[in-house]
């Protein structure tokens, strides 16, 4: 009887401990991985958040960190049939010497016949299953795993992708010999007020911009394991624009534009190129899946044309670009290291800098331009902006009824629910995340204060009217992308992005806040990998539609108050769960339905984000307080 009494008392004590302290028993803070922290610190050393949108920096560093670890998390094996076929394409491209150089044109400069032939060749490549799983995916799969360890974040980047695009072009020409890979000049879209409305994202070119791709030449495409082809165009960031292009072309030597020796972010070619990947979103947003969208190849054909323009400038300045390979301490990018992925034992990284490609095989048609003397851009799908004398893409919405299109601010996002190459929603669980937002100083709502019959120049919600608020709330003004999502109503999205640190998977969700007010808050439910019997390690990053970063705060295991943290957390399945197996579980956990109306509670929240737009990098704050 005494033993039973002792056990009962012990159980009561244990239950009380779990009730009081167990709310975060299965989720805890982590420091940022050393490589990721080093990248963030190095990229922002001497740089103010007023100069670059923070999301731009974090995306680059997270991609770099995950890229290095992807071969451990997500290895990829190439079949013998694929190897033989790729080797044949590679050798053909290496030895080819055209009597008349192929001309790579801007996508919108193609004739209808040329565009139809190109689309048909890509479709037939996808349908050809003579190599596993099909010829298109067999090529796309080279942009992952061990096969391309030297393709990014170093001087081999432009040469490797030059070879990769040529292999794709050779595969297309096996089907239709007249086809040449068109390039996508995203700066034509960058000049638009709403680049996500570009005619490129229509059924005439690459298909719809948002969600599952269900129209156009690549409608309803699937990767063999990675799920359907998706895009979230315009949800995050902006495309590379003419200023970015001019910054790159303003330099003289390769080491001034290539990672890691490019001294300033604005001159970093690879970083600038990454903006359009993030802008398109979906498959294009992540290195492992990016080539699953055919737009990837047209985009990298454009990156190659920019590089060629840079190389031509070098030759005019007496520099031989084939020998101007930057010094590097990274053995993967050593000039005489064998190039990854193309199954040839005699082709090195510096061979990607050879003159052979544009001397013997192809050339780039000049980028579309206009001027007072030549005000025509040469394509029905482009027009000349005569205020700046630049060519701009037409909008696909010009051909739609007003009610057929949705403003990007109202679009949702489509997650791919892919983990380590397999797409399945049941492998994910949901964290509840809360965000607090102070009103950015640049916001102006068209609802004005009126005193003595006169309207104020600032809106009625502005903190300038209320001293008691302006004393408490001091938002900064860090650099942002152009605020394309603002529709004048005050509605704003705060995005929460997750990137697996011990799994290869990412997700994007958002909370909707009302930025009319000096302070607002909202809740969202964010997908992360189900820890199962193990541990999920994941990084959460928050930013507004302008790319301005929010600061993470995690619940302290000592005080149970929220404190600055890195945004990296570890999650296991110890009870009580701090996640829901579906977002419905999170909602039912957050709200109690004891009366005729619900009561909300925050006990299941471990991480919150404060978007107060300080002019300091979030990792510097967490670093100083021990959170990183």
From TrEMBL:
Q: Name one Pfam family in it.
A: Tyrosinase
> Which key words are in the record?
Copper, Metal-binding, Signal
- Give the range the annotation lists for the signal sequence: 1-19
A GO molecular function term, named singly, is: oxidoreductase activity
* Tyrosinase copper-binding domain ranges (all copies): 293-304
Keyword Metal-binding recorded? yes
Whether Metal-binding counts among this entry's keywords is: yes
Q: What is this protein called?
A: Tyrosinase copper-binding domain-containing protein
Q: What species does this protein belong to?
A: Mytilus coruscus (Sea mussel)
């Amino acid at each position: 009887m005494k033993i039973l009494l002792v056990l009962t008392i012990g159980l009561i004590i244990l239950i009380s401990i779990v009730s009081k302290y167990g709310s975060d028993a299965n989720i805890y803070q982590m420091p940022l991985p050393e490589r990721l922290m080093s990248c963030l610190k190095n990229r922002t050393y001497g740089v103010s958040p007023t100069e670059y949108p923070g999301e731009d920096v974090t995306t680059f560093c997270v991609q770099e960190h995950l890229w290095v670890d992807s071969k451990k998390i997500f290895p990829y094996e190439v079949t013998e049939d694929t190897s033989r076929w790729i080797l044949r394409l590679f050798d053909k491209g290496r030895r080819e010497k055209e009597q008349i150089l192929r001309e790579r044109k801007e996508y919108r400069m193609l004739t209808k016949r040329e565009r139809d032939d190109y689309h048909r060749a890509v479709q037939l490549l996808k349908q050809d299953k003579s190599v596993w799983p099909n010829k298109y995916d067999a090529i796309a799969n080279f942009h992952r795993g061990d096969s391309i360890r030297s393709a990014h974040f170093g001087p081999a980047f432009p040469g490797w992708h030059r070879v990769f695009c040529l292999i794709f072009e050779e595969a297309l020409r096996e089907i239709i010999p007249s086809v040449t890979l068109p390039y996508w000049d995203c700066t034509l879209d960058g000049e638009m007020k709403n680049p996500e409305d570009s005619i490129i994202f229509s059924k005439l070119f690459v298909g719809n911009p948002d969600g599952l791709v269900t129209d156009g030449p690549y409608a309803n495409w699937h990767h063999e394991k990675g799920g359907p082809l998706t895009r979230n165009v315009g949800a995050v960031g902006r495309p590379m624009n003419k200023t970015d292009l001019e910054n790159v072309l303003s330099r003289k030597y390769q080491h001034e534009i290539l990672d890691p020796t490019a001294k300033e972010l604005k001159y970093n070619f690879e970083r600038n190129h990454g903006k359009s990947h993030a802008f398109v979103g979906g498959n294009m947003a992540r290195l492992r899946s990016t080539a699953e969208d055919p737009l990837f190849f047209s985009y990298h054909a454009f990156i190659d044309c920019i590089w060629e323009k840079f190389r031509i400038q070098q030759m005019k300045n007496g520099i031989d670009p084939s020998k101007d390979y930057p010094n590097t301490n990274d053995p993967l990018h050593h000039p005489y290291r064998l190039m990854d992925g193309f199954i040839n034992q005699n082709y090195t990284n510096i061979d990607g800098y050879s003159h052979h490609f544009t001397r013997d095989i192809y050339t780039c048609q000049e980028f579309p331009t206009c001027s007072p003397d030549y005000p025509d851009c040469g394509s029905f799908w482009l027009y000349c902006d005569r205020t700046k004398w630049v060519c701009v893409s037409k909008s696909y919405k010009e051909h739609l009824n007003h009610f057929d299109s949705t403003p990007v601010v109202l679009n949702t996002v489509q997650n791919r629910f892919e983990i380590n190459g397999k797409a399945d929603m049941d492998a994910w669980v949901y964290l509840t995340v809360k965000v607090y937002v102070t009103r950015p100083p640049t916001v102006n709502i068209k609802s004005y204060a009126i005193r003595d019959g006169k309207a104020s120049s600032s809106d009625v919600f502005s903190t300038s009217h209320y001293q008691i608020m302006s004393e408490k709330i001091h938002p900064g003004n860090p650099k942002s992308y152009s605020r394309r999502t603002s529709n004048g109503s005050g509605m704003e999205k705060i995005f929460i992005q997750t990137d697996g640190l011990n799994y290869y998977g990412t997700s994007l969700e958002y909370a909707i806040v009302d930025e009319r007010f000096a302070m607002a808050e909202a809740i969202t439910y964010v997908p992360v990998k189900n820890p199962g019997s193990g541990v999920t390690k994941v990084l959460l990053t928050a930013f507004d539609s302008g790319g301005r970063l929010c600061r993470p705060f995690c619940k302290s295991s000592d005080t149970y108050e929220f404190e600055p943290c890195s945004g990296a957390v570890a999650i296991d399945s110890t009870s009580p769960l701090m996640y829901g197996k579906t977002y419905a579980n999170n909602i039912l956990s957050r709200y109690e339905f004891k009366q005729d109306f619900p009561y909300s509670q925050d006990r299941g929240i471990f991480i919150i984000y404060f978007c107060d737009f300080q002019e300091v990098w979030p990792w510097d704050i967490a670093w100083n307080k021990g959170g990183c």
